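call fold target=Thiamine diphosphokinase
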Amino acid sequence: MNATSFTLLLGGTLTVTDRLRALTQVSRVIAADSGMRHALELNVLPELWVGDFDSSDAALIERFPSVERRTYPAAKAATDGEIAVAEAIARGATRLIFAGALGGERSDHALQHYLNALGLVEDGYEVVLTSGEEEAYPFAEDSELALELPKGALFSVLGFTTLEGLTINNARYPLQDFKLPFGSSRTISNIAEGPISVSLSRGRAMLLARPYDLSGA
């Protein structure tokens, strides 16, 4: 068990894959409201369950009577996911895995997970967001991100600002010291030639990978 690595079980969709198990197998676990249902799929027992529990039915709650629960009012100033992040950090987290952060019924929540993750990376935390089938890695200026991907896997770089000095290595469409205007689709649907690396000198970005989608091979 890695005492500073935390998996946060969130309310979006989750597909259990080998990569997901590898990401989460040595981490501690905190569940946010209905994200607790993923504990059954991953066969893990969270150390804490937080939220207003408006999306957790009685049957789910009854499945985990031994897990500590902290209940918050529905009218609160943070999402259940953000509360789970704060609890993990209070317990010493340096690495955060947002499981169930992508997709689901609430696109506003999914986008908020992106924004929260970008802020956390700037504060020095290691963060990955995953649905099992997709993975998202926030990265900030003056940093390099290396990612193991199979040849032919699809990935995109999403700029949350104008990106300067963007470099993408070992991809079908590489870039070197490139300026990407905010809102440009230039870096959508690239194809890995194997393990890739991405860096930039200025800006905020997210690498979104589909490790099991080899349609570009």
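return ok
The chain has two domains: 2-133, 139-210. Residues 2-133 form a domain with the Rossmann fold fold (CATH 3.40.50.10240).
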